[in-house]
Amino acid sequence: HHAMVAAILAYEGGIGVGNGCFCAQPYVMRLLELGAADQDRWRRAQLAGDKTGRPGMVRVSLAAYNTSEDIDALVEMLHRIIRHEYEGAYEQAPESGDYRPVGYEDTMPAAFL
To answer: I want to staple 89 with a disulfide (CB 3.0 to 4.6 A). Which of 69, 72, 102, 106 is the partner?
Structure first.
């Protein structure tokens, strides 16, 4: 799942990527070859508050400051994911569709209170 790949890259590799439909939902649906029935099923689930099945992709964006070592780290993390050699156990949040490590608690919101 695209959100699982993004979570593993972020939490275990410190690599930020985008995932989802990137404000191009019709195009992504076509690239993923999702038919009308699949799209309708996904939209109904989303409206009911369940985003676990949301379709999407992972996008890696490079910039002028990225080094060949950054690319090597990304490739190594992708190989680890393919081999199922990532370290954490992950759970998916139905309200967002995002994955996070089991037991992870986001303390960032409290910092702004």
So the answer is: 102
